[in-house]
Structure to design on (227 residues):
């Protein structure tokens, strides 16, 4: 895509797109844990707001894991850098994360539609939110400590830049507007300028037109922690 910046980390000054996304995912799961612990069984409005917001975030997690599966692992496999045991371990962990996302979404749906005893499901929600954070913490740590350094070592600069472009397209195009608004809310000024500078003009327009709506949805879901 010609509207992406031509030189992306780690071969040029600027943040690593994968690091930005991993950090945002973990920060968000921490926030989700806090929200689940603070949620009251009789607060249906907040339960519904959290349910609506979580649908977008669950897509972010699944989208990131899918990108690792289709963008990172095949490159490492072709280079002979990982074995079948490692691939099996990654697949198992991704399946675990997907299962936990499904359970958390089910718990929020039950609360939002009043389909179960509220206090019981609020407690269940807190337990699942904690498990989601632990799962992603382990999965993303392996990515940053083992998988990505292998890419930096094995890929030629042009191929590495193309992967960075895929990572940014995933956030700025594939699941916009939620993805771009969600990520940009967690960036500092320099990181924000980098991501928006790497986005297509249409994505930047979408971000500017939808960021207030995202902030309202996040504030409704996280009234005690929203910035």
């Amino acid at each position: 895509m010609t509207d992406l910046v031509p030189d992306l980390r780690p071969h040029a000054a600027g943040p690593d797109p994968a690091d930005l996304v991993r950090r945002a995912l973990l920060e968000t799961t921490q926030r989700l844990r806090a929200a689940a612990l603070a949620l009251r069984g009789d607060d249906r409005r907040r339960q519904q707001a959290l349910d609506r917001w979580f649908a977008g975030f669950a897509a972010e997690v699944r989208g990131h894991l899918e990108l690792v599966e289709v963008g990172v692992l095949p490159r490492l496999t072709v280079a002979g850098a990982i074995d079948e045991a490692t691939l099996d371990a990654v697949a198992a962990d991704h399946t675990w994360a997907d299962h936990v996302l499904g359970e958390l979404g089910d718990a929020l749906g039950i609360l939002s539609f009043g389909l179960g005893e509220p206090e019981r499901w609020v407690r269940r929600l807190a337990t699942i939110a904690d498990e989601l954070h632990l799962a992603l913490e382990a999965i993303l740590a392996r990515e940053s400590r083992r998988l990505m350094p292998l890419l930096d070592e094995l890929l030629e600069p042009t191929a590495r830049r193309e992967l960075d472009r895929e990572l940014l397209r995933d956030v700025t195009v594939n699941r916009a507007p939620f993805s771009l608004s969600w990520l940009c809310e967690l960036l500092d000024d320099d990181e924000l300028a980098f991501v928006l500078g790497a986005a297509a003009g249409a994505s930047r327009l979408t971000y500017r037109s939808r960021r207030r709506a995202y902030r309202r949805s996040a504030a409704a879901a996280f009234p005690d922690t929203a910035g």
Notes: Residues 1-12 have pLDDT under 50 and may be disordered. The radius of gyration is 18 Å. Residues 165 and 173 are 11 Å apart (CA to CA).
